[in-house]
Amino acid sequence: MKDSTPNYITPEGAKRLQKELGELRSKQRPVVVQDVADAAAQGDRSENAEYIYGKKKLREIDRRMHWLTRRLESATVVGQREDGATAVFFGAYVEVEDGDGIRTTYRIVGEDEIDLAKLHISWRSPLGRSLLKRKEGDAVVFRRPSGEVEVTIISVRY
Question: Which of 67, 68, 76, 141 could pair with 21 in a Cys bridge, judged by C-beta atoms 3.0 to 4.6 Å apart?
Answer without folding.
Answer: 68
